[in-house]
Write a structure and sequence with these properties.
- Four copies of one chain form a homotetramer.
- Chain A is α/β, with parallel strands linked by helices and 346 residues long.
- The first copy, chain A, has two domains: 125 residues, NAD(P)-binding Rossmann-like Domain (Rossmann fold, 3-Layer(aba) Sandwich), CATH 3.40.50.720; 163 residues, Dihydrodipicolinate Reductase, domain 2, CATH 3.30.360.
- Chain A has a seven-stranded mixed beta sheet. In chain A, strands 2-1-3-4-6-5 form a six-stranded parallel beta sheet, with helices on both faces.
- In chain A, helix 4 links the parallel strand 3 and strand 4.
- Chain A is globular, with a radius of gyration of 19 Å.
- Chains in contact: A-B, A-C, A-D, B-C, B-D, C-D.
Chain lengths: 346, 346, 346, 346
C-alpha cells in the first residue's frame, strides 16, 4: 500500500477523493487535512464515509505530510496549491494538484484570468497536464500533475479528435456547457441556495469563466492554431453532472457514421471513454458517480457543423476520479485501479 | 365577456390556458373540451383549478363550440388542429392555434419535418404567425393565428435585433436551447419518468427537432437571407422554463453596452420583454409562471461572437400566455389583459 | 388605496408579500424596508418583481413608516418584531406580524423555547392570533395581529374539527410534518446548500422545534385540555410546500365519509379550504403559489386512528398570504382580496 | 465464481442487482432475463452498465436458468414469483425472491391485501424472511428467501429494539414513511411523470398500502402481541431514498442516551447499521447508493413517545442490496461481500 494525503479533504473534491481512495487497492488515504475542519471526525462531517474512514481531519502541515505520505492530492482553491506544492515537492512528495494553479503554462495568462500573481513560475514547465486521454506519456514518474478543470476535461475530450484530424476548423470553437451545482463546491452562498437554484437554469460568467484559457491552451495544442473558444457555462438544477456541447465548423463533408468512426478510432484504447452510436446522445445520469466520459456525435449537414456532446460527472472524471487516474499512471499502477466500479443506473 | 373554448384542455398547455383565462377580465373559458377526459370534472383532474373552474370536460364538437363560443384556443397535438380548425373557421369561430399545424408557410416543409400530409394548404396563407414582438400588425381581426413553438419564441426573440440590424451574420445561427420537462406534455413516457430525468441532463433530437424549420423561417424573414440554424435542444431536470442561448457571429465590433442599447431600442415598447443590463444574465426562475421574456447579452470580443440568452416559461410565453396575448390583439383588447400578474420569486 | 409597508421585504416572506400586494386591489406596497438591502432596487434583487414594483429598499425607520403607511407587515426574524412593533403601534400603524414574537400568549413559554427575553409583555394580551379559520372574530379592527407559523397553520387546520367535535383524543396528537426548503428563508447555509439538500430527506429539530408550543397552545384551546403534541418536522427537497400529517386517536368509531362530512361542515364557509372526498389526498403541488389549504382524511379503523393531511404553500397560506388575509379582515376588506387568483397546475 | 440469474433484470431492482453483482467477488450475473426486453443489449437499455456487463437480456426460461445458474434472484412483480419459483426450486435453483409473494406467512392475508389467490401455499412455510438483522439464523442453506419490502425493512429495523425490549407499547405503532420515486419502479405512469412529482409531496395508499400486513407480521413477532401498524407512506420528489419515522409509545421513562444505548446494543454486530448519537438524525442522502441503514433516536419525554427514524436507500438495503446480503448468507459467503463500497457523499 502507498500512503497518500488529501489536502483540503472536506470539500466535495476531497470527499470524493476520500471515497475513491477508501476503495482503492493500492493507495491508502493516510492523512486527511483541513484547516477549517481540523479535529473533527470524517464520519461526523460525512456520515456516508463513517463506516469506511476512521480518521480525524488534521492541519495541513507539509512536513507531517512528507513524513507520512508519498503522494499528496491537493483539493484546494487556487493560490492554496501555489503555497503548499513547493514545500511538498521539496520534501519529495509527489503532488497531484486538482486546483487551477499549475494548469496554465503561461503565468501571464494565469495572472490575467485569476487576478493574482503566480508565485511558482519554475514549476510550471515541470507540471504535467493530467488529462490522460489527451496525452498520458508524460505522467509516469511525474513529480507534479496539474489536473484539468471539469469543463476543460469534457470540452477537450469532445473537440480533440475533430481538431486533431483537421475535419473541423481549428481557430474557433463554440462550447455551450452545463454543470450541476456541486461544481461550485461545498461552501454555501446565494448562488447555491436551494430555492434559488431549483427550477432555475441560467448561464453564468459568460465570456469570463476562468476555464476559458485552459480550454484554449489545450485545443491550440491540438489544432496547431491559436484556437479561440466561445465558452458559455450554465448552472443546472442537479447536484452532479456536466455536459459540454461543442459546435465545430466542418472543413469537409462527413457523415454521422464517419464521425463516430473517427472518434472511436481516436479513443479506441481508452478505458473510460464510450463513443455512442450515431443517433444516441449521452446523459449526465449515465455517468453519475463514475470516471467515465460518454460522447455523442451528430453532423448538421445542412449547416456544416459537427455537434459533439460529452457527459461526465464533474466530481469524478471532472475532478477526483481524474486525479486518481493520473496518480495511477504516475505510480505505474493499472490506470483503472479504484475506478472500475459500476454505478447506480438512476 | 367573450366566451371562448379550449380544445385539448387537460393537457399542460390547455391547463395553463384554463388558469390564465379563469383570471382574464374579458375572456371566459366557457367550454373545455377533451376526447380523453370528457365527463370528468376539471377540479378532479387538477385540484388546483377546482376553486376557480366549476366545469366538466366535454367532447370537442365544432358545432357546439361555434354555438357557444366566439374564439377557440387549440391546445392539441399537430394534425389535430388540421382536422378541427377548418370547421371552426367555417362556423365563424376565431381560431388561436397553439399547435404546429399552421406555423410553417410552406406545406412541403411541414410534410418533410412532420412526416404527414398537410391537409389545409389554403389556410396557410391566411394564418398569422402569433409572435407579437416579431410582428403584431397582422393580428387585429385575424381569423386564424398560428402561435409559435416554445423554442422558436425564445430563439427569434433572442436573434431578431442582431439580424435585423445587420450587426450579426445572417446565414447561420447556432442555438443551444434547454427546456424543462413540462415541454414534453402531460402524457407519461420513459423520457419523462421522474427517476430517468432527475439528475439527468441530455440533448435530444439533435439536428432533427421539428422547431428547426420554424426558427429558420422566422430568422430568414428577419435576415433577408436563407438562414440556417444549428439547433440543439436539451432536457433539463426541472418542470418549467426554457432558455435559448444564441451564438451570433458579429459583422462588426460592438461593445456589450452598445448591444444592450440595440436590443432595448428594438424592444422599447414591448410590455413583456426585459433586456438586462450588460453583465446580467436571465434565469428561468425569474420568469417562471409569467408571460415575460428576459434577455441577457454578452459580446465575446475575442472571438467576434454575440451571445444572447433568452429565458421564458415554456408553458406561458412559450405556449398558453402567448396564445392569450395573441387573442387580446386579435380582439382589440389590451395586449396585457390577464397576463400582467406578478409571479412568485422562488 | 391603503398604503402599507413591508418590513424585512427582501426575505422570502417579504418578497411574497410584495408579489401579493403588487396585485392587491386596495393595499399598495408603498414602503419596502430592509437594513441589509437598503439602497438596492427591488428589481435588481428579484428580477421577477422588476416589471411590477419600481421601488428601492429603504431603511426600516418607524417614523417614516408611520408618516407614509397605515399598515405595516413585519416579515422579520423573531426579536426584531419585538423591537419595532411597539413604536409602530404607538404611531398608530396597524401591525401584521409574520414573526413569532406575539404568537405565544405566555411570555415564559416564549422565553423557554426561543431562549431570549420577551420585552413587550403588555402587547401579548392584545395581539390577535391570525388564523382566520380558527377564529376570525377578533380580527376586524385589531391593532396587532400575530400570524401563525407555517407548521401551526397546517396542523391546527388539520386537527381542529376532530378535537373540537370530541371524536378524537385531545391530550396527545402526533404530527409528522414536511416542508420545502424555502421555509428556511433566504439566507444560505449548510442546511440549504443545493447539493446537501437535493436527493436528501431528513427530520430536523426533533422534539425541539419552536413551533411545538404554538401548536400546543392552539390545540389546547380547541380541545379544552392540555394537549401535548409530538411534532417531527422534515426537510424535503423541494422549494415550496408544506404537508402536515396528523395522527389522532379516535374516541369512537367513525367512517371515512362521516369524517369528511364533519370536516366539511366545520369548514363550510371557508373560502380557502378544500376538504377532499374520502380516498383522495392532497399534494403540495396542488396548492403551490396559492393561499389555499387542502385537506385529506382517512380513518384507520383497524387501529382506531384518524389520519388528517393538510397541504399548504408554506410561503403563502403559511406566511405571506395568511398575513394578507388577516389584513383584509382587520381592514374590513373582502377576505379574499388579492388572494383569489388561480395558480399554475405544475 | 457462482453463476446466478436475475429474473426481471431491466427493472430498477434488477438493474441494481446487475450493478452490485457486476462488482461481486463471488457471484457472477450469468443470465439476465426479461420477457419485455429480450434480445436487447444491457448496455443499450442502461448505458451506465455497458462497460461492465456485456450481455443480452434473454427470455426467462426456468430450464435454461437451472442449466446455467445455481441461484436466481427474482426482481419481478408479485404473482410472477409465484409462477416461476416452484419450477426453479424443483430444478434445485436457490431462489432469492425480491417480490412480495412469499413474505406473508398466512396466504389469506396475502389474498386479502393483494387481491389474488396464492398458488404456492406449500412454499410459504419454507420461505425464509430475508431481513438478516431481524433474524439471520435460518438463512444459511435456505432454498427460498423472501426478501422484505422497502418500507418493512426500514420500519422493522426502526421498531425492533424498542418492542423487543418492552420499553414501548407493542400493540400499536404509528409509522409515517417517505419514499423516493424509484420505489414505484421503471414503468412510467401519471404518478411518476416528472412535472407531476417535482415540487410535489403527497401521501398515497393511506390505510391501504400492501406493506402494512408485512410490517405487522414482523412487529407482532417481535412484540409477541398482535401489533397494529398505522402506516402512511408519502411520495417525495427525489429518485432514491426511504425514511421511516416511527412513533412508539413508551412504557417507561427513558433518556435519549439510554435509548441510543439500547439500540446500539441490539445492533452491535450488524455490519450495515449505524445508530447515530443522540441529537443526530439520518438523511436519505447519507445512505444513497449503499446497503446501510442509519438510525436516529429521540425521546419526546413530554409526551412519552419514542421517535425512531431509519433511513435507507430503497433500491439497495430496501431491495437489491438486501437480496445480495441474503444470498451471501445463504451461500456462506462473507455477509458484506459486494456490499462494502463507499458511496458518493452528494
Amino acid at each position: 500500500m502507498i500512503d497518500v494525503a488529501i489536502v483540503g479533504a472536506p470539500g466535495y473534491a476531497g470527499a470524493e477523493l476520500t471515497r475513491l481512495l477508501a476503495a482503492h487497492p493500492t493507495l491508502r488515504p493516510a492523512m486527511l487535512t483541513s484547516a477549517a475542519e481540523a479535529g473533527r471526525r470524517v464520519g461526523d462531517v460525512y456520515p456516508a464515509l463513517a463506516p469506511f474512514v476512521d480518521a480525524v481531519y488534521v492541519e495541513p502541515d507539509p512536513a507531517e505530510i512528507a513524513a507520512r505520505c508519498r503522494v499528496a492530492f491537493l483539493a484546494v482553491p487556487h493560490t492554496a496549491a501555489l503555497e503548499i506544492a513547493p514545500a511538498l515537492l521539496e520534501a519529495h512528495v509527489t503532488v497531484i494538484d486538482a486546483s487551477a494553479d499549475f494548469r496554465l503554462k503561461d503565468p501571464a495568462v494565469y495572472e490575467h484570468w485569476y487576478g493574482v500573481p503566480h508565485t511558482a513560475h519554475d514549476l510550471l514547465a515541470e507540471a504535467v497536464y493530467g488529462l490522460p486521454e489527451f496525452d498520458r506519456t508524460q505522467l509516469p514518474g511525474a513529480r507534479l500533475v496539474a489536473c484539468p478543470g471539469c469543463y476543460p476535461t469534457a470540452t477537450i475530450l469532445a473537440a480533440t479528435p475533430a481538431l486533431e484530424s483537421g475535419i473541423a476548423r481549428g481557430d474557433r470553437v463554440i462550447v455551450d456547457a452545463k454543470s450541476g451545482v456541486s461544481g461550485a463546491g461545498r461552501t454555501p452562498g446565494p448562488g447555491t441556495h436551494f430555492p434559488a437554484v431549483h427550477e432555475s437554469l441560467a448561464p453564468y460568467k459568460v465570456t469570463s469563466h476562468r476555464h476559458t484559457p485552459e480550454i484554449e491552451q489545450g485545443l491550440s495544442l491540438v489544432s496547431g492554431l491559436d484556437t479561440r473558444v466561445v465558452f458559455t457555462p450554465h448552472l443546472v438544477p442537479m447536484t452532479r453532472g456536466l455536459l459540454a456541447t461543442a459546435y465545430l465548423e466542418l472543413n469537409e463533408e462527413i457523415s454521422d457514421a464517419e464521425a463516430v468512426t473517427l472518434y472511436r478510432t481516436r479513443y479506441r484504447d481508452e478505458p473510460f471513454i464510450t463513443v455512442h452510436d450515431a443517433g444516441r446522445m449521452p446523459s449526465t445520469l449515465e455517468v453519475r458517480g463514475s470516471n467515465r466520459a460518454h460522447i455523442g456525435i451528430a453532423v448538421d449537414a445542412r449547416a456544416g457543423v459537427l455537434i459533439v456532446v460529452c457527459a461526465i460527472d464533474n466530481l469524478v472524471k471532472g475532478t477526483a476520479g481524474q486525479a486518481v487516474q493520473c496518480a495511477n499512471l504516475v505510480l505505474d499502477l493499472p490506470e483503472t485501479a479504484g475506478l472500475d466500479l459500476p454505478v447506480p443506473v438512476v
